[in-house]
Specification:
The protein has 288 residues and is of the alpha/beta class. It folds into 2 domains: 5-186, Rossmann fold (3-Layer(aba) Sandwich); 195-280, N-(1-d-carboxylethyl)-l-norvaline Dehydrogenase, domain 2 (Orthogonal Bundle), CATH 1.10.1040.10. 46% of the residues lie in helices and 15% in strands. The chain has 11 helices and 10 strands. It has helices spanning 17-28, 40-59, 65-74, 98-111, 127-131, 167-179, 195-211, 217-227, 234-241, 243-257, 265-272, and strands at residues 9-13, 32-36, 75-78, 89-92, 117-120, 142-147, 156-161, 183-186, 282-283, 286-287. Helix 1 (17-28) crosses helix 2 and helix 7 packs across helix 10 (243-257). It starts with 8 loop residues before the first strand and ends with a strand. The chain binds nicotinamide-adenine-dinucleotide. Nicotinamide-adenine-dinucleotide binds at residues 13-19, 37-39, 42, 93-96, 100, 103-104, 121-123, 146-147, 149.
Length: 288
């Protein structure tokens, strides 16, 4: 854990929406990254996507052509975990399933060196429960690092220690995240951590306002953008991430925190009727 930040060797497992960009932000921060996915096509697509994202960034003046080339060069695909034996920090961003994540964490525990810190990017699973998949020796070096989409633009990371995470692991991980320009905040291991609890409290209330006929989704989005300074309104956000995913998260929050997170009837009804949003599909505001 004592290697200087730029020399930290990074691993990422799961090359989907989140994992690919998590790999990218470390590479842009000057670190070498191994990116693994069990699906070879997903891995290949992730590298293509990162190239396109960097190209757009270059044309908008966010990165230089040199930064683009070096960052892409620093992300290496890994067809299995055998090459993770020299990693310092490995983040898993595989499917949101206790079973899938448990298997990946157990495999990482075996593949990674003793000093390596293992992090989970789960949004809803308790970090301490995930830690049970690891050996007792690893648990002090395991924690949650919850990134936000799109990872290359959103600076926040919630750093969530599990029951047995050592203070050194939390402090070291925080400093590595700061070194790549992220803004980590410390959050206790509670369902939804901090951000999703605040977000879904607002989304639930926004849907209730529509149920009560107080205002339209379009006007409520305008209210949040123009009155509260939010970059995107709640209904555009739900269409983007899908109302189906919001419904799932609210059910999980309700189970842990009670009735205040009960999903509104209108949200359930719209999801069941196929108005969940997602790319090109009908949502609250027409086609997302
Ligand atoms: N999408 C978001 O906005 C968001 C935000 C914060 C956190 N998260 C969390 O990040 C994680 C990943 O989400 P995502 O949206 O990137 O999902 P995704 O479906 O886009 O990607 C998951 C990837 O994991 C791979 N994978 C699955 N099982 C694997 C295994 N056993 N070994 C190796 N690779 C495996 C899949 O092939 C896929 O490419 C989830 O835990 C999710 O809850 C998502």
């Amino acid at each position: 854990m004592s290697r200087p930040a730029p020399e930290t060797r990074i691993g990422v497992v799961g090359a989907g929406l989140m994992g690919a960009e998590i790999a990218l932000v470390f590479a842009l921060g000057g670190m070498h990254v191994l990116l693994h996915d069990r699906d070879a096509t997903a891995l290949e697509n992730a590298l293509t996507r990162l190239g396109a994202l960097l190209d757009r960034g270059v044309s908008r003046g966010l990165y230089t052509a040199d930064q683009r080339a070096t960052a892409l060069d620093r992300v290496r695909p890994a067809s299995d975990l055998a090459s993770f034996g020299d990693r310092d920090l490995v983040t898993e961003a595989v499917f949101e399933s206790l079973e899938v994540k448990g298997e990946v964490l157990a495999a990482l525990d075996k593949a990674c060196p003793e000093a390596c810190v293992i992090a989970s990017n789960t949004s809803t699973l308790p970090i301490s429960t995930l830690g049970a998949a690891l050996s007792p020796e690893r648990r002090p070096r395991f924690l949650g690092t919850h990134y936000f989409s799109p990872v290359s633009r959103m600076l926040l990371v919630e750093v969530v220690p599990a029951f047995e995470t050592s203070p050194e692991t939390a402090a070291w991980t925080t400093s590595i995240l700061e070194s790549i320009g992220k803004q980590p905040i410390a959050v206790k291991d509670v369902t939804g951590f901090a951000v999703n609890r605040m977000l879904h409290a607002m989304l639930i209330e926004a849907v209730r306002l529509v149920e009560e006929g107080v205002a339209t989704p379009e006007d409520l989005d305008a209210a949040c953008r123009l009155g509260l300074g939010h970059p995107i309104g709640p209904f555009a956000l739900m269409d983007n991430v899908t109302s189906g995913l919001c419904l799932q998260v609210q059910e999980i929050l309700r189970e842990s925190h009670g009735e205040r997170f009960r999903p509104p009837a209108l949200l359930k009804q719209r999801v069941a009727a196929g108005y969940s949003g997602g790319r090109g599909k009908p949502g609250w505001l027409g086609k997302a």
